[in-house]
């Protein structure tokens, strides 16, 4: 019977502080949750930031299969960007599906 083995989540949590140039502070988490002890996994990524913009965030969620020479991933990504009133683009949001292949050698 398939199960989700959450203790095998590998990931990172990052915080990028603003610099003197006015960069946007950003917090992100990226990880893979392995499904059982096999070769299937769920990759996910979430980050959010603010500063020069009101709010910028993106999320990615997918399913992947690992093989000896790499992995293949099918995922959905959503991105949202909100600029203060003085910017050219005040609000931009888009999302879509993607297919990726990573090769290791």
Describe this structure in words.
With 105 residues, the protein is mostly beta strands. It has one domain (6-103). The protein is 0% helix and 65% strand. It has no helices and 6 strands. Strands 1-2-3-4-5-6 form a 6-stranded antiparallel beta sheet, with no helix packed on it. A hairpin with a 3-residue loop joins strand 3 and strand 4. The chain is elongated, with a radius of gyration of 17 Å. The protein starts with 9 loop residues before the first strand and ends with a strand. Residues 1-11 have low confidence and may be disordered.
Mean pLDDT: 78
How far is the N terminus from the C terminus? Answer: 33 Å
Oligomer: single chain
Which structural class is indicated by helix and strand composition?
mainly beta
What is the number of E strands? 6
Point out poorly predicted stretches.
Answer: 1-11
Provide the number of structural domains. 1
**In which order are the strands of the major sheet placed?**
1-2-3-4-5-6
Order of helices and strands: EEEEEE
Radius of gyration: 17 Å
């Amino acid at each position: 019977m398939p199960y989700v083995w959450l203790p095998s989540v590998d990931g990172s949590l990052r915080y990028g502080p603003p610099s003197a140039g006015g960069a946007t502070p950003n917090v992100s988490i990226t990880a893979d949750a392995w499904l059982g002890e096999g070769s299937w996994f769920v990759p996910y990524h979430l980050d959010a930031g603010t500063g020069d913009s009101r709010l910028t965030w993106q999320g990615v969620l997918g399913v992947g299969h690992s093989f000896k020479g790499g992995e293949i991933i099918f995922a959905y990504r959503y991105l949202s960007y909100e600029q203060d009133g003085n910017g050219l683009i005040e609000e931009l949001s888009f999302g879509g599906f993607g297919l990726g292949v990573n090769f290791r050698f």
